[in-house]
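We store sequence, tokenised fold; for instance:
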Amino acid sequence: MTLTIGTKAPAFTLPATDGQEISLENLKGRKVVLYFYPKDDTSGCTREAQDFQALREDFAAAGTEIVGVSPDSVKSHDKFRTKHGLDFPLASDETKAMLEAYGVWVEKSMYGRKYMGVERTTLLIDRDGRIVRIWNKVKVPDHAKEVLEAAKAL
């Protein structure tokens, strides 16, 4: 499924770090940065998480929640958060149902080998649960700053 700007973000409920459960319904009334990343503790994913963490207070001032999502387990997410001092939730979608609903579980290719994985993607969702911005095939450097500017403008 391809998501488009202006449509309602697909509903989800996922287990998350600190024994939480994250759902789109519970985030209603707040702006949400939903960022999808391939794997905990890999270089690009670590840098992306650290960049969002560095701007955490600015996102909060803009009334925006940050939620990271990957197919890694909650246990893996908890270790990743502790190791890198992250204080925003990471949601686990081991079944890949939510990743598929958002169209980010895709066929990838590396060194000629095809496999399924997460395409690094970020969504900005407004207070009503509508998608207002989509960043596909994200390049990590300066990405968090760009997302923050979009959140402030919303």
About this structure: The mean pLDDT is 96. Strands lie at 13-15, 21-23, 31-36, 64-70, 90-92, 105-110, 113-118, 121-125, 131-135. The radius of gyration is 14 Å.
